[in-house]
Structures are given as C-alpha cells and as structure tokens.
UniProtKB/TrEMBL annotation:
Family to which this protein belongs: Belongs to the pyrroline-5-carboxylate reductase family.
Record protein name field: Pyrroline-5-carboxylate reductase
InterPro entries: 6-PGluconate_DH-like_C_sf (IPR008927), NAD(P)-bd_dom_sf (IPR036291), P5C_Rdtase_cat_N (IPR028939), P5CR-like_CS (IPR053790), P5CR_dimer (IPR029036), Pyrroline-COOH_reductase (IPR000304)
Lineage of source species: Bacteria, Bacillati, Bacillota, Bacilli, Bacillales
UniProt-annotated binding residues for NADP(+): 9-14, 72-75
Any GO CC annotation of this UniProt entry: cytoplasm
Gene of this entry: proC
Organism whose genome encodes this protein: Metabacillus mangrovi
Domain (Pyrroline-5-carboxylate reductase dimerisation) ranges: 164-267
C-alpha cells in the first residue's frame, strides 16, 4: 500500500484533513501523496512544507502513475474539474470522491464508461485519524480499488460501508456532524462565560464530557437511552436539564439538523443531474 500513489484534486480544508491523517498513519508514503489545484501555488507550498507531500498544479501531475485520484473540490467546481480530468485519466484508475451530493453516476458520465468510482464521506476529524467515514463503491469499481479506498479511509478513522442511497443521510449525520458538536460546545462556552465561569475550564470540561460519553457508547454494550437513564436520578439535576432540553425541542432540533443537511445533499445531486440532462 505505501507504494501506491494518490492525488488530491483540490487542496482545501478536507484535502488537508485527509492528507494530515494519511501522512501521519504512513498508509501511503508522503512522497507518494500529491495535492493539486488550479493556480494557488502558495497553498501547495504550504501543504508541502507541513506534510512533506508533493504539491503541484493540475497540469503538472504525473497522471499515468497515479493509482487513485481523490476529488476534493466544492460541488460547484466538480463538473469543470471532471471535464479537465477526463482526457488525462483512464477508466481503470480509481476515482475516490469526497464531494457531497454528487452521484457516482454523474462522475462516471463526466469521465469514462465504467470509471472506477468510489464515493466516500469523511469528516474533518480525519486530521487526527478520528473520522467516521461512509464508503460507497459504484458497481463498476473493482475489488482492488474498493480495497484501496477502504484502506485509505481506514487510515483516517472508522469506515462504514453504506449504500449510495444512504449517502445523503450519512452526510447529515457524520460529514456535517462535527459542526453540530462544535455548535454545542459554543453554547456550553457561552453559557459558562455569561454565568461567570472561565471559558478554558468550560471548554475542557465540556469536550471531555462529549469524549467520555462517546467512549461509553463505543466501548460498551449499552444503548444511549440506557446510559442516559443511569445519569438521571429521579427529580435530580439531570432530569431538570433533560426536561428543559425536551421542552425547548432539543431532539427535534437535532433531527432537523440531520435531515436538512441530508436534504441539501440530495438537492445538490438533483441540480447536477438536471445540468447533465441540459447538456
Ligand atoms: N469540509 C468538510 O468538512 C467536508 C467536505 N467534504 C467535501 O469536500 C469537498 C471540498 O470541501 P472543502 O475542502 O471544505 O472545500 P475548500 O473550498 O476548502 O477546497 C476546495 C479546493 O478545490 C480547489 N478547486 C476548485 N476547483 C478546482 C478544479 N477545477 N480543479 C482542482 N481543484 C479545484 C480549490 O482551489 C480549493 O483548494 C466538498 O465537495 C465537500 O462537499 C466532505 C466531507 C466533509
Ligand atoms: O458543508 C458541506 O457541504 C461539506 C460536506 C460535509 C461537510 N462539509
């Protein structure tokens, strides 16, 4: 695996999170990792300096040597990027897409028939090897390329094999998910600050509480509802907190966050499918 060559097409936040995790894990040798963009040389230099990888402009990539291309541009830039890629890659080369809402069918239609497309949905915790990543291979993808994609994603966190129809919901839960927890932390910090507690104490205590609860779920046998029951003494402090959460629509707010993100992911694919029909 460390001899495989991978190239990120698009060198923004998500590419950097994955590069950091992959470089740290050693799954692929640093010199076999390429990151490319259209024109931002200083960004490429920054990635080279920080991670010891090869940053280059799109036109300079050694296309025929690359085993897997990782599409990491915004959905709005995907079509242009794919048109540019089409003349440069072969159907057998793996195309791993992290782009939210762009179907493997669309990617295949822009590239070659039976292009080896694997959709993945990591999150920014890839930076520290703690992503929760959905992986969904298209029917054309060979076992070898699916293995390659799963090994790569396993080096930045936990991998979940999902159906492509589940990708929108998975994006709502895990791709966008870190933002919900950061938002929760922002509220915890603001509440602490407004009530006279030092922010650093609140930040560390809040984050440790999220980490501990997550570990209890992942390490143990008990369902979240059972774990919650054990924290909650009758007529105690937790019961008062949970009542306030329920009264203020806490569960509904979480449901709406997930479903709205999933809906946006679906809308993006519909927009792209329409644009494909127009052409
Ligand atoms: N940021 C996140 O938490 C996650 C993002 N994603 C997906 O990752 C993709 C990238 O997101 P970010 O890194 O946040 O965006 P970003 O804006 O930070 O980076 C996008 C990069 O693509 C480059 N780019 C634009 N057009 C290009 C082209 N034609 N060819 C090559 N490079 C091109 C830009 O120069 C930029 O470096 C999006 O499609 C998003 O849906 C998926 C999971 C999580
Ligand atoms: O906000 C977005 O569209 C991307 C996809 C998942 C997380 N960030």
């Amino acid at each position: 695996m460390d001899k495989k060559k991978i190239a990120f097409i698009g060198a923004g936040s998500m590419a950097e999170a994955m590069i950091a995790g992959i470089a740290e894990s050693g799954t692929v040798g640093k010199r076999n990792i390429y990151a490319a963009n259209r024109s931002n040389q200083s960004r490429l230099q920054e990635l080279e300096e920080n991670y010891g990888i090869n940053g280059m402009l799109l036109d300079e990539l050694p296309y025929s040597e690359i085993d897997a291309f990782i599409l990491a541009m915004k959905p709005k830039d995907a079509q242009k990027a794919l048109v540019n890629l089409k003349g440069k890659i072969k159907a057998e080369q793996a195309v791993i897409s992290v782009i939210a809402g762009i179907s493997s069918q669309f990617i295949e239609a822009c590239l070659h028939d039976r292009q080896q497309v694997i959709r993945v949905m990591p999150n920014t915790s890839s930076t520290i090897g703690e992503s929760a990543t959905g992986v969904s291979p298209s029917p054309s993808a060979s076992m070898e390329n699916v293995w390659l994609a799963e090994e790569l994603m396993a080096s930045v966190g936990q991998v979940f094999r999902i159906k492509e129809e589940e990708m929108d919901l998975f994006t709502g839960i895990a791709g966008s998910g870190p933002a919900y927890f950061y938002y929760l932390m922002e509220s915890i910090e603001e509440t602490a600050r407004a009530n006279g507690m030092d922010i650093q104490t609140a930040r560390k205590a809040g984050a440790q509480t999220i980490l501990g609860a997550a570990k209890m779920i992942l390490n143990g046998e008990e369902a979240p509802s059972e774990l919650r029951r054990k924290v909650t003494s009758p007529n105690g402090t937790t019961a008062a907190g949970l009542d306030a959460l329920n009264f203020n629509g806490g569960g509904y707010a979480i449901e709406q966050a997930i479903l709205s993100a999933a809906k946006r992911s679906k809308e993006i694919s519909e927009q792209f499918e329409e644009s494909m029909l127009v052409k």
